Amino acid sequence: QVQLVESGGGLVQAGGSLRLSCAASGRTLSSYAMGWFRQAPGKEREFAAAITWSGSPTYYADSVKGRFTISKDNAKNTVYLQMNMLKPEDTAVYYCAVGASYGYTEPLRGNYWGQGTQVTVSS
Could you say which residues of the chain have pLDDT below 50? Predict the structure, then answer.
């Protein structure tokens, strides 16, 4: 089993920044991809960003490309999501996930999920 603990969410004004962290524990994660999904109120969960175990390639949804950056620290089994130039439409619960990557077709298929962290962007 894999346990994922997210942190870093909060309330920020439009144009501001936040950094999410997700620490994984429980088993060896080599060969797994890690990443983030988000779910806005009344909407389905959607992919945001993913990174392979080696750190490259990375994948982004078009809606966050150029504003969000995903990175990871393998020694700490931690993945980060740096979110800049935040917009009100980025408001969502952000979920960390670990699983398999199928490239650009499906950057991350989550096998393990965190509890989620709330990000709220005010206008």
Answer: none
